[in-house]
Amino acid sequence: xxxxxxxxxxxxxxxxxxxxxxxxxxxxxxxxxxxxxxxxxxxxxxxxxxxxxxxxxxxxxxxxxxxxxxxxxxxxxxxxxxxxxxxxxxxxxxxxxxxxxxxxxxxxxxx
Length: 111
Prior knowledge:
Layout: E1 4-6, E2 18-25, E3 28-30, E4 33-37, E5 41-48, E6 53-57, E7 62-66, E8 74-79, E9 84-89, E10 102-108
Parallel strand pairs: 1-8, 2-5, 4-10
Antiparallel strand pairs: 2-3, 5-8, 6-7, 9-10
C-alpha cells in the first residue's frame, strides 16, 4: 500500500496540481532542489531506487516512509507554503551516508 500524506484539502478553485517525481537512493534525492510556487497544490510522488528511505520536511510537518524499490511510491499532497527554503532529509536510517542525504523544497512567489 502506498504511503500518503495529505496536508490540505483540494482547493475550490480547481487549480492544477504541480506533480513532482522524486527518486530516493543511497545517499541523495533527485531532484536535489524541488521548486514549487507558493499557494499551488503540490503532489510529490517519491520512489526509492534501492532500500527503504524516509522523506521529511520537518518545518512543514512532512515525514513519510519511502518503501524499497519494489514497493509502491510514497505520495505527499499539500499546498505550497509561503516563499522560502525548506530543508529535506532522509528520516529512515539508510547506511553510512544517511546524514548527507539532503535536498531542499524551495517555494517561490507567484508571478
